[in-house]
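User: We ran a pulldown and think these components assemble together. Before we commit to crystallization trials, I'd like a predicted model of the whole complex to look at. Sequences follow.
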Amino acid sequence: MNKNYLILIVAVALILSSTGGYYLTQDGGLLGKGNVTITDMADRNLTIPSPVTKTLSTSPTTTVLVYMLAPDKLLAFNYEMDGYELEYVPDQYRGLSSVGGWFGSQSGSYEEFIAMEPDVVFDSVTPSNSTSYHTSTISVLNERQQKFGSIPVVGVLDTSNITTLNPSIKFLGTVLQADDQATKLVNFNDKVQKEVKSVVSQIPDNEKVKVYYAEDVDGLKTDPAGSVHGQLIDFCGGKNVADIQIKGGAGETDVSLEQVLKWDPEVIITTDPTFFKNVYNNPDWKSVSAVKNNRVYLSPQSPFKWFDRPTGGNMIMGIPWVAKILYPDKFKNMDLNSLVKEFYNDFYHYQLSDDQVKNLLRNTGMQI
Amino acid sequence: MPDGINNLKKRLSLNYNTRRWSVNLILITLPILLFFVSFLIGRYPLTPVEVILTILAKVYPALQVSPTATTIVWDIRLPRIVAAILVGAALSVAGASFQGTFKNPLVSPDILGVSSGAGFGASIAILLVGIPLITQVSAFVWGLIAVCVTYALARSIRSSEILIMVLSGMGVGSLFTALISLCKYMADPFEKLPQIVYWLMGSLASVNNHEVLLASIPIILGISFLFILRWKLNILAMGDEESKSLGVDTGKLRFIIILCCTMITAAAVSISGIIGWVGLIIPHISRMLVGPDHKNLLPATICLGASFLLLIDNISRTILITEVPIGILTAIIGAPFFLYLLRRGYNQWT
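Assistant: Here's a predicted model for the assembly, 718 residues in total across the polymer chains.
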């Protein structure tokens, strides 16, 4: 879903509820809270309350991980969850509001964050080898720290890349005192990555499936190989047909239908339910191989999309799914259903029945 | 009571002095009033009493206030309020001075390429260094460089003709805009590019006291100079022929005014990014209130510009849970007004 759309939804929701700013009522903190000194992932020494019970993050990627590791310690999401996204959110977390944040092209409100009285604020910092880069990150962190005053701003290495995600998971586990949960998630991540990698690394380039990532309602926006948004295609041995420049920020480069027809992808993956609903009835698309062979797939939406947006720990679940839709024969023996069940139970705090799992996968366009 | 109001109404419509006096009073009190009210506005629920106590606590340390309230008032609200006042006043004064200098009511402060230059300076600094302070200084310096190039070009054509100056400005402006695009193209798409795009969008969301203090020096200096020179603007607005016959060196005067305007605009852009429309519409509203005489016009634009941007910024930081980029709001309010001006065929001033 594109960011503007999100902002629009947020705006409409706010106007409808016409609440001039709402804030959670807190029950008094735990008695005898101590403090502990930690070093965050940007090498800053911070004193944080112990235990940490109330947290916010400046962007969705970190928020998703907190929701997976310690949902009771999350005060708010960064955007309003819509109907699709709430489907598999357990009742106790449905009421979580949105606090906004600094991501894509939007800027959060410090006062909004402070009003929720978090113990700590997690801030995503981008890993990079260039030194100047690190300075910039540190300076942004310090700037935020100044505005947040006495609330510690904890730098967490950016979680937008599934292959470099594990240290951030472990770090968050430590801060949130959810080490076991973090270990579980790291193990799950390693398990599915290894299983997929061992197979797809054997596939020669000329046998790789041609994939197009269709974004937006008309499917005419995309992100190329090498972009964080299409990383699952790269990882799972697909060949992303979009030979375009990586576009920064929110990504989403416009492409023309003619271009898509020329690329003629064998598989289309989309995150947009509207596009998925219409693509098979749209005469414009009928000559695309993927449409002809019924190989258009829709990423599940709830609680977070499996494929992209946010680009965080939620994409771990997308690894086996993308692998199986790209190479159904090679992954015949991979039990995707039980993986989904395990992931939802352990990390999304939602128990799915076998039928629900089947349904969920069927709705993605898989022939089960 | 209604009698009193009717009486006042009558006096306002008939008596020029009463009207001028009340307009002046409103113009002077508006920014002062808004300044204090703005401290009470924000998404964090602080009561007026808490705010006042927090401010007093700076003077009387004995007062007990929460550190959170201190952060909100001193580190979040104060820099934004001061920045809005400075930027609003700077852009409006520069707009009014340029409109007079170029004898064209549709001129905005970035007519000579200062905004594009500053935008390029910021982009290249974000690209290469990324430290906010460097970005600010670089924006300021490149804004000055852009106008110097424009001015030198126009002079080299050996003409102080306004048209040549404006055309050079357009050329230099688009050159720097292209350079901005080049920076965007080369920027790392995950971290640097959003920063550049966000900076260009125009916002006061990330200013801090330090930056505001730094930018206030050229802004206050430039505005003071223009304020002193304000009656000479009338001479320029009359046209080159007339002013030459009065023995005024128009070239030199124009240079000084351009220098001041550039300095304050570049400093304003360096903390706020590119905020459109303010410099164009505020001088017009001021003219409606106090007439075209620069002696009154400049003080009016200072008060009105500061108030306008402060009001807009208050809206931008409170209306939604996220910040609404201020450039969007000024344009939403500014553009319809501009179109309204076009319809009216604005020709009552020379």
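The CA atoms of residues 230 and 295 of chain B lie 6 Å apart. That may be worth checking against your pulldown data before setting up trials.

User: Thanks, that helps.
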